[in-house]
Structures are given as structure tokens and as C-alpha cells.
Amino acid sequence: MQVRALARNIRMSPRKVGLVVAAIRGRPVPEALALLEFLAKGAAHPVAKVLKSAAANAENNYELDPGDLYVVAAYADQGPSLRRFRARARGRAGAIRRPMAHITVVVGDKET
User: Fold this and answer.
1) pLDDT band at 111 (very low <50, low <70, confident <90, very high)
2) Strand, coil or helix: 23
3) Which of 24, 54, 59, 83 is the most buried (most CB within 10 A)?
4) Cβ-Cβ contacts under 8 Å for 4 (sequence gap 6 or more)
5) Which residues contact 6 (CB under 8 A, 6 or more apart)?
6) What's the CATH code of the domain at 71?
């Protein structure tokens, strides 16, 4: 059985979050949480929260053992971008995009 958790509109670039998410894909949940705890990336904290949420969903809703779960799929999609403007030379405006990411983590047990 596969259980997922989703965090939307995280104020980080999906490209940077994707590096962290790729590091946990395919690993057992306890090992992935230990890896995220000591990973020196800013995106490790929100990814760890989503991973804990997916494990808790599997434990509480489907009565699966969190120690037997592993990360089936994990990805970061692009969310909406905040658009800001910065003053530039000669009265012009330069656009600044501040991207957001949607983080999805799918966990499953060994039978799937």
C-alpha cells in the first residue's frame, strides 16, 4: 500500500528542493529521516516534515509499521511565483521572480 503527503507553496526553489528529494528517494523511512537531519541544505527541514507526515498517515490511517516503510516516490513540482520589481537604472524596473515549490512524498511497505 502506498500513502502520500503533500506540502504546497513552500517558499523555496523547486530546483533546490529537488536535490534534497533525490537524496531520499528509494530509502527506508528511518534512514531517510536520519539523512535529512544531518543534511546541510535549507530544504531538508520541509522535506523531513513531509516525510514524517507521510509516515504518520500510513501509521494512523492504514495501521502500517513506520519502521517497515520506504520512500517509493518523492518529487518537487513548481508552484506559483511571487513577482516583485526592483528599481533599475534610468527609471526602469527589473522583474524578480521568487519561486515556490510543491513537495510530494509517497511511502509504501515492502509488499508493494
Assistant:
1) low
2) helix
3) 54
4) 54, 57, 104, 105, 106, 107
5) 50, 102, 103, 104, 105
6) 3.90.470.10
Distance (Å, whole) CA 111 – CA 18: 27
Partnered with residue 107 across adjacent β-strands are 3, 71
Rounded to whole angstroms, the Cα distance separating 28 from 70 reads: 4
Could you tell me the residue range of the domain that residue 80 belongs to?
Answer: 2-108
Q: Using one digit for the tens of pLDDT, what is the confidence trace for 18-48?
A: 999 999 999 999 999 999 999 999 999 999 9
The CA distance from 20 to 17, in Å, is: 5
Please state the domain count of the chain. Answer: 1
Please, what is the end-to-end C-alpha distance for the chain in angstroms?
6
3-class DSSP assignment, residue 26: coil
Answering whether pTM is above 0.85, one says yes
